[in-house]
Records
---
Amino acid sequence: MKPAAFDYLQAATLDEALDLLHEAGGDARVIAGGQSLVPMLNMRLARPAVLVDIMRIDDLRKIEAEGNDIMIGAGVRQAQLEAWPDLSARLPLVAMALPWIGHVQTRARGTVCGSLAHADPSAELPLSLIALQGNLHLRTKRKRRTVAADDFFLGMMATELGEGEMIEAVSLPSRSEGTGYGFNEIGRRHGDFAITAVAAVVTERSASIAIAGVDDRPRRFDVPLPSDPGLDDALNEIAWDLNARDDIHASARYRRELVRRLGRRTIEEAAACLV
Amino acid sequence: MSRLKAHQKKTVTFRLNGLPVRADAESRTLLSDFIRHEIGMTGTHVGCEHGVCGACTIQVDGAPARACLMLAVQAEGTDIRTVEALSPGDDRLSALQAAFKRHHGLQCGFCTPGILMSLDALIGARPDAGREEVRDHLSGHLCRCTGYATIVEAALSALDDIRREDNDNV
């Protein structure tokens, strides 16, 4: 339960971090808060030759409004976002999801973008990103690109991030008028990995649902409005579409039932926030 | 920029319980092992070493954090408190420690240092915290002896004592 040896490089600026990642190539990993990566290192599920620490880069520690989007830098810890005074007003879905992430003790260190890069299929922040259709801003030494949430997650702990590439920031659309949000999660205990977590975004004319913990990545679906008698059938189809599997935490059948029931409840709660 | 090659050692400096400390660490040295083996402060316990059990919880710049999920080199320049900081003097207990003794908030004591550091941070940040917040903070800790009920009672009792003391001082 100790990490294998690695070179540890601490970057003072973003350019320095990108240089270091470029130099090290595919053997390097970015370390930010370390709350997902260090367990992987300790269990030797990850054995990078080089770690590039980005937490001394002041520019990455910002939460900023850019037009209708909220930009969250790669150095922003989950606790920092939780304490951001505008969180409930600007990102109500994230405000609902954050308390479910790990525990106070891990949110104090873990970063928002680190959780996205880790891409655990049951994690709340990837789910929120998918539900809100946010964007990831990726950088290498040579280029920058913006990747939509749906294109970023490729599978269990697999993302679009390439060699020498890091997340610079994530942008999430700010709450819009006439939109309601809902979030629910079922786990063995509060703070454990979700067996199933559901996020819903509802307006007067449209509804969508995003689900984590069932398939190998969070997935989003448009669904009928809660008043539509077709909603239960739609949720049933989604439940079967999600490739639920049995594991030690829950059976596939139980997960499908959670998609149907928690799905309906979350959509109804989101609709109830519509004022 | 600073570079530390694998297996090379670097001097790490931070404040521990109010005093400056320095010792050598490899890049892969965990902060939990650094505090126990290099500094020699063994109050911080090591359980699961992957951030689940909470036994190694310490305070980093005032916030509770897992020492096993930090590299010693990441602690450079921080202000760290461990369970050794809680007692106000030899053979004396803090209000929180005394409440744990009174309410039988521990049996084997392995998980206790971590739990105390989380609750101490909660008391410092939110002295008006209630049962729900105490339970939320404890959700990051595993205790296989007590069933948690006595820990919750101890924490609530300590919060009462501290609020009463504050009122007396007004």
Note: The mean pLDDT of chain B is 96.
---
Amino acid sequence: MSLEAQPKTPKEVEELPQVTIRFAGDSGDGMQLTGTQFTNASAIFGNDVSTMADFPAEIRAPAGTVYGVSGFQLQFSSSAIYTPGDVVDCLVAMNPAALKVNLAELKHGGVIILNEDGFTEQTLKLAGMDRNPIKDGSLGKYTVHSIPMTQSTLRACEEVGLTGKEAGRCKNFYALGVVCWLYSRPLEPILDFIEMKFKDREQLREANKRVLRAGYYFGETAELFTRVFRVRKAHLPPGVYREVHGNEALAIGLIAAGQLANKPIFYGSYPITPASDILHELARHKQFGVKTFQAEDEIAAICAALGASYGGALGVTASSGPGIALKAEALGLAVMVELPLVVINVQRGGPSTGLPTKVEQADLFQAVLGRNGECPLPVLAARSPSDCFEVALEATRIAVKFMTPVMVLSDGFIANSAEPWCFPNTGDLDPIEIEHTDEPNGENGRFLSYKRDEWLARPWALPGTPGLTHRIGGLEKQDVTGNVSYDPENHQRMVNLRQAKVDKVAEFVAEQEIMNDPDGTAEMLVVGWGSTYGAIRESARRLLRKGVRVAHVHLRHLNPFPRNLGAIFEKYRDRPVLVPEMNKGQLATLLRSKYLVDTQHLEKVQGRPFTTVEIMDAAEELLAAKGAKK
Amino acid sequence: MSVTEQKREYTVKDFGSDQDVRWCPGCGDYSILSAVKKVLAEAGVPPEQYVFISGIGCSSRFPYYMSTYGIHSIHGRAMAVATGLKVARPDLHTFVITGDGDALSIGGNHTIHTLRRNVDITILLFNNQIYGLTKGQYSPTSPFGKKTKSTPMGSLDQPIAPMAIALAAEATFMARTIDMHPKHLMATVKRAMEHKGTSFVEIYQNCNIFNDGALAYAQDRKVRAENVIELEQGKPLLFGKDMNKGIVSEKGHLKAVRIGEDGITEDDVLVHDEEDSESYHAMLTRMRYPELPEPIGVFRAIERPTYEDLVNGQIERVIERKGKGDLQKLIVGRSTWEVHEDEAEAGKG
């Protein structure tokens, strides 16, 4: 096939408001890269985008098996979107296993693009399929495009001089080329990426470019496709955008916090899925004075961060649920010694090792309650990839203002998802003011290490400062002096003070806003936290189109709750309150115990985010039940 | 340490806190506290330049009794806390006070990794072969068969040799000393403090309540000379009241001999070298009473860059090459696109 071939037939162009595509193949097939590049091209084109990575815990499970299927889903749209899409419009499957695992989520009449060469007797057997679905008519209700991608890829890079194996690995770019053509995407951003990625490897650079173009021109030339699709630019608020992933935004947020506080970040961490990317990202930015420390274990990671905080750095540690469990004792120490510390939990499916690469929100209790003794600390949750930036900044502000460890909750969905980010100007970000005591604060030149300020924070006196030497530790402290004390009354007082300090954070942070209900007349209230934001927001919008008005409260502050949250529940007193969570109802339980509000919880613990429809259905059922009661 | 800090004379009193010391009367910890304060007073560095970090156990109460900065942290984790502090603040003199349970059992992992990184801190490990604070269970250094509250029929665990572990963990400085040998104790702590890198000091310490006399063979002045060898750089491995016994290497094994017997002269005796090969240092770590006298003093002192210097060096090199980080550039990233006013309709928030 000539690359210069002209289209044989003019194709029909169909306008679509939004499209959801899923790329699926073996974990070694490069599906994550393919999806990321398609996302990037769409974002630069001007669509709103939302993505979801879905990959196995095994790095390379046996090729061709259903265990090894890696998927990347994205929705791109001509209007604002908040989720990676409920149902898939187009499925790209590189082998039978990928087709088998993902077919259920493809909509009726959806498009399937298959690598025909991936469907051999052997791979069909590995996927547990008796017959070849390409030939047996079982895919009749879909529009199937079966393309010999491997063969075409090998042909496209014949003259480049790669081995057959190396050339074969480029087939993901062939698939990408086909999909780019089908959805009228520009190739330039992807070609730029190839140029950069294979800067020093001429053959691979050339091969991937040729293969990408070959896929694109195949679409244009082949009789297979009768029409192409177009998704216009989205109407986003004006501004300059970039694409950002959750873990990336957390890392940038931490670096920004260090810069705004004029302090080095000390990041102690032990590798764990899905938090490791934060470490990788931070380790690349040493020019900001960031010190990354890959510790021998989770405990050393948090202890070193705490030691750094004692010395005056901004100590940060991150992990996922199992690692946070290991850090619990040191978190208690941080609460006791009252030093600033930011602790990030990129949640995954649990308990134990659970579902390492899948999403869940089941560590809320762990964050709020999971330590020995009365051990309160502020807990914040990010609601989207770009929100991770804001949350990292706010967590740092709270940590240094209140001299306390702060827990930040993200999750495996946000961590690996991307969205457009209308990023801030650094000049518009408030500095983080930190005051280190340098004079004794007691009588006769004594330093009182637990004498509190108006926010109940104790002074942050740095070692090396003359006249302020003091000892801190895990034993109960005497109020004001900080000396060891086993006095019963003093213990009660200190427990109360530590709680009161954390409660005071509610006075420091913004009030809770209510979305989607400007006049307060919504029929019900949906309360969420973390990464369910997109699905709830989208549900509320769609319900509104159906004439159902649903108010949406999305909590960033989970401990303490926003100071006006009680008033919000009071306001919606006679209306149903739905709390969708990717757990067994942890926020719902906390809200019930604190506000005596009759929350209804909607749970999902399947390692996958909510779909919009699931939340819409639950909301409508709840309203119907209420109507029936009347 | 701040170079602008004026040197002045300090006394032991300058390093003691106002807190009552709560160790049992007669505990070996008292003499170690006293020795450390004396060494610091002589060093001429003000108390605020020191940080003492401990874990949990009797010895770990140490920081409360010093007038320096300090953290009484959690069980086994003092070295991790110290590592973070030292990387953040290389200017501070950082000590870790730990025990056999704290450093070799619950915190064994941190001991290994701190040593291999060579963080410039001084570790004082009080080894009394027993858990004192929890009232008398066997520890990782208790001898096999030791009868304690948790092992009424005798311990079934083989004891571990702290010095052998330190060597295996790539220690750059390792020494052993004794609570009841103050002169040696002070000299050893001083050497450890001066070492650039992790210095690991095992201190034989008597728990007179739960394990009294377990280390008497080394502590008791009446028998010490026969049971320990005081290592000195460049000096032969001689011991005994009359210094007439020595250590020779025979087919790769160490053996105690008497000078003048079987034609053995002082020239046959091994000469101590702190910078010698690992295999020689390994043999020293394996000398156990009663088969052989146990060495005290500096086993090994070699030079290797410290962890905090390497960490900060990488940062300096990157800044030299790329300049200081530009936050706006980082936030903007590689590629951006602009949405103009006229394109904007339905907002996203």
Note: The domain at 12-219+304-308 of chain B is CATH 3.40.50.970 (Rossmann fold).
